[in-house]
Amino acid sequence: MEPKVKSRGKLAYKFLFWFLAVSLGPMGFIAWHLIAISQETLKSESLRNQRSTASGFAETVSNFVARFRTALTITARLEGFSSMDHASQERDLNRVMQQNPEFLELTVADGRGKEVVRWGRYRSGEAAMRDFFDQLPFTTAMKGQDYIGGLSRFQGLYPTLTIAVPIPGGPNQPNNGVLIGQVSLSGLSQMLKDEFQEEGRGEAAVVAGDVHDVFLVAHSDPGLAYGAGAGLPAEVSKAIMTQSSKRGGGEIELGDGKRVLGAYAEVKETGWIVYVQQPIENAYLAATQMRAQVVRVLLWVVVITLLLSLAIAGHITQPIRVLQQAAERLTAGQFEDLPEMTLTNDEIGDLAQSFIQMSDSLKEKTGELMHAKEELTKYGRDLERRVESRTRELKAAQDELIKKERLAAIGQMASVVGHEIRNPLAVINNSIFFIKTKMGKEGGLDPKVERHISIIQSEVKQANSIIDEILTYSRSREMKPEFVKINHFLDDLLSTYPFPQHIRVAKKLDARDPTVRVDPDELRQAVRNLVGNGVEVMPQQGSVRVGTEVLETGWVRIDIGDTGPGIPPEIVDKIFTPFYTTKARGTGLGLAVVKKVLDRHGGRVDVTTEIGRGSVFHLFLPLAAPAPGAKPAPAAQAAVPQTAVRRTPQA
What we know:
14 helices
């Protein structure tokens, strides 16, 4: 069979690759670089817009607070306040509250801090008058300074602001008292909501305090600004409340993994901070759209370049494809009807001319080689027949010689082993028994001595087992056949076999309980060898499966299987060879004995094995009498087939 030629890439595809690389490589690099620059510019612009929005709303918040401070300052300079006329003050306060619905309460305190007039929107005017002498709004205003602070929540929900202004006295006179107003800040939340109600604009908030005690003054979602637990996420609070600059911004990662673009600005005089944020994807929407547009343009360029490159590459490679077809015909031995080649005035034309000359020369040389090949083939066949004949003769003689030498060596060794080794082993075994008996009477065996005695006994037993295997295989004693119920025979054998605790035994015996005429001792030895081999290949856990089945051809089959690693394919043909073994210890006669026993009984042994799944040995024995319903064995089946080995596909 000719070796398969490695497939090479088409020349047109190579041209196409280099066209694309040369044309699109620099363009793609420049486009990607420009996209990166544009994205950074757009990101910076988005952040600048966020900062401008925050600064603009900080100015709005400042004007919002200044409006109420101005209203209080103008009211405090009215004639009724300078003369401390309570009736006039009440009228003026009523008018101020009607003009400014954000005022929740207005209070007048005299120079001693005693409340003299109070006008509230929701509180009863008959409540006890309060004392503001030690409170910060009163002390600050009495010094001639306006007080803006004292954030609290009206009814525990709505944020309010305390503003206090001094009530001036006459020229060169101390202040007569203080005008204190409680202003609702819910209007700020409404202003933020009106500004950020458009979907995708993000959100905004006004906060006060520090990173450990943040007070949410207003929010674009007013519901979030109401209640004692109102506040911003911890990541946002930490980012804006720990800054030393009065304005700034950047990307902020929230606890849920989302990223937002945030900006902040400080409100003049109050120290509050206006915070504006929007999702990263919205902030950088323009950059994303620009990138998508550039990618679409590049895709169109790739498609157009690809089509043009294919056309150019096809035109260039067409003469080369004709040469390729001609070369394939020459390779197949077809020297006639070659494709017509155009001799162009370039390097490809010169190549075609050289190819035509080469094909003519090759045709001539091939004819000469074919004639020489026919002669060599004729002589080779004659020589091959002679070599095969001599090889078969030599192999048959060699196999016969090896068999005779092996059997002679086995017989001689068995005689020596049986006579020269077994007697010393018996003496050692008796001596060990005497030592154990003697030391047991004198006060018990030392554990170490007992362990070494057990080792000696085990090794003696192993040596005797090896001798038994050799003698069993080498000697041919006279068979003593008996009629045996095979199911009862196997039950009795399995019940006395010393299975380890990690081995499970599974039986599946034919209910017809067939009868065979066998030598019980020899068959018992063969079955024990197979069971013992199965136990040895399953040191951790596994199961031994034993089964019988009556075949319609006049045979009974005994199956002995295990769930071990299976027999490797490279040695499965050698397992019945005497003295062949893969174990660290052993004679390699176990399976050879099994085959010999089956041969002496006119049967055969097969094996089915699968790597990783185990092996099953099949022992075939002739029935002693036809089973009920069984067909008699045809004459052609009376002969025992040779030992067969079956392998299933590996897992």
